[in-house]
Amino acid sequence: MKNKGIKNLLIDLGGVLINLDRQRCMENFKKLGFTDVEERLNIQQLNGIFMQQEKGLITSAEFRNGMREMIGKAVSDKQIDEAWNSFLIDIPTYKLDLLLKLREKYVVYLLSNTNEIHWKWACENAFPYRTFKAEDYFEKAYLSYEMHLVKPEPEIFKAVIEDAGIEPQETFFIDDSEMNCKAARELGISTYTPKAGEDWSHLFKNK
User: Fold this and answer.
1) Is the per-residue pLDDT at 2 higher than 60?
2) Which among 12, 81, 175, 176 is annotated as catalytic?
3) Which member of 29, 78, 98, 117 lies 3.0 to 4.6 Å from 34 by CB, making a disulfide possible if both were Cys?
4) In the prediction, which pLDDT does 37 show?
5) pLDDT surpasses 80 at 42
6) Where are the transmembrane segments (predicted)?
7) Concatenated DSSP letters of 42-58
8) CA atoms within 13 A on the CB side of 92
């Protein structure tokens, strides 16, 4: 951490904490008969039903019904959820240890573009560690589907700053999208963009 005076950390979920496997997700949807899933599910630029879900503009039930329409045959909620959640792999335990350690020095927030189905899976499968649960790693989790806003919209950062009562100049944001980081920097927030699977704990060595 080069920046002095940092008190708050904003940390992304997908690609920063949790490992992702888009290809596995695509393959599992194809097995259900969703043949053009690759064209429809662009992770870098979600649109249509995927963006509506991420923004919380539709419910999980409406998302599943929309998926059934695109697949064109009867598939169960469980099958859809399993295929969709196969996008998520795990959070390495060293990152969970790091979050707990960072909480001793910083106020740590989660800021994620995510949806209810993925968040529920993460809370049940990725965050539980020793005696800890999702809520133990963060002062507060800011989730796009609850806020009806998504990164890189400036409004989502402004909403977090206001709700948390934090100063942009005292805040450091870690996100795997350069576009998201650029939006944060324009508001005065320091940023870092890790590579996929990167151990970014070096940012906090000897700090």
Assistant:
1) no
2) 12
3) 29
4) 84
5) no
6) none
7) -GGG--HHHHHHHTTSS
8) 14
